Amino acid sequence: MKMFKIGCHLSASKGYADMAEVSHKIGANTFQFFTRNPRGGKAKDINEDDIKKFHEKAKEYGIEVILAHAPYTLNCASKDENIRKFAKETMADDLKRMEYTPNNLYNFHPGSHVGQGKEIGIKYIIEILNEVITEEQTTIVLLETMAGKGSEIGRNFEELKQIIDGVKLKDKIGVCLDTCHVNDAGYDIINNLDGVLEEFDKIIGLDKLKAIHINDSKNPIGAHKDRHEKIGEGTIGIKSFERIINHPKLCNIPFFLETPNELEGYQKEIEILRNLYKN
């Protein structure tokens, strides 16, 4: 029997061990967190005692994988060299810090080309990834699927494939699929989940799908809006999520909630999804 890996986004302010404890209390067995303030800035110093306690709690609570999220301010595709420099330095620092909790996942939004064209933006993203990803790291870096608002890169599988093709250390790169984002980007995961997964597999390869942000959407398919909603309260709907978490090609991938919730709401959603899980 496969383990259903489900968690939510938590505040890292009290450290890794606290996130493990909070996850366990709300019925989760994984979690996502920002590596630093989501709007950027310096990361807190690593507390090695906290890391030791985290590893103990992770073993006790069956936490096999966690997902770090880069700050939203990172834009590897920017036309501004200083913004790209900030993104590169932040990612390099984050990836070094991730080795205190080895063999986990690091997710980031590919970025926005801000009018210079997606080809140039993709070129900049590839350049940064090839500079920050090392052979020694155990962390897998994930490109997130995006809703396609404005000049976002990652609005379709082809754009993510272009980036992956340019990364030299391909065993260190993967994808995080966001259900709200792909719905808003125009992929019909409500009526044609199999078709969407077949397309992903054909273009990128399902072996590259390492995590799923499981969020409902406030908007209809193809809206390009990126407005998350609570599970079962948006346009994607509870039946779609039941199919997603039980799909044989997805059911062993870790799921992370980013719905508009506090801890109590996340706990309720985790319970809902656990009750829907049949594998």
Summarize the entry for a quick read.
Helix 1 packs parallel to helix 2. It contains 9 helices and 10 strands.
Could you explain how this protein is built, in words?
- This protein has helices at residues 16-25, 48-61, 81-98, 118-132, 157-166, 179-185, 193-203, 238-246, 263-276; strands spanning 6-10, 30-34, 67-69, 105-108, 140-144, 173-178, 209-213, 216-217, 228-229, 255-257.
- The strands form 2 sheets. An 8-stranded parallel barrel has the order 1-2-3-4-5-6-7-10, surrounded by 4 helices. The protein has a two-stranded antiparallel sheet with strand order 8-9.
- Strand 2, helix 2 and strand 3 (67-69) form a beta-alpha-beta unit.
- The model has no long low-confidence stretch (mean pLDDT 96).
- The chain has 279 residues and is of the alpha/beta class.
Ordered list of secondary-structure elements with their pairings:
Layout: E1 6-10, H1 16-25, E2 30-34, H2 48-61, E3 67-69, H3 81-98, E4 105-108, H4 118-132, E5 140-144, H5 157-166, E6 173-178, H6 179-185, H7 193-203, E7 209-213, E8 216-217, E9 228-229, H8 238-246, E10 255-257, H9 263-276
Parallel strand pairs: 1-2, 1-10, 2-3, 3-4, 4-5, 5-6, 6-7, 7-10
Antiparallel strand pairs: 8-9
Helix pairs in contact: 1-2, 3-4, 4-5
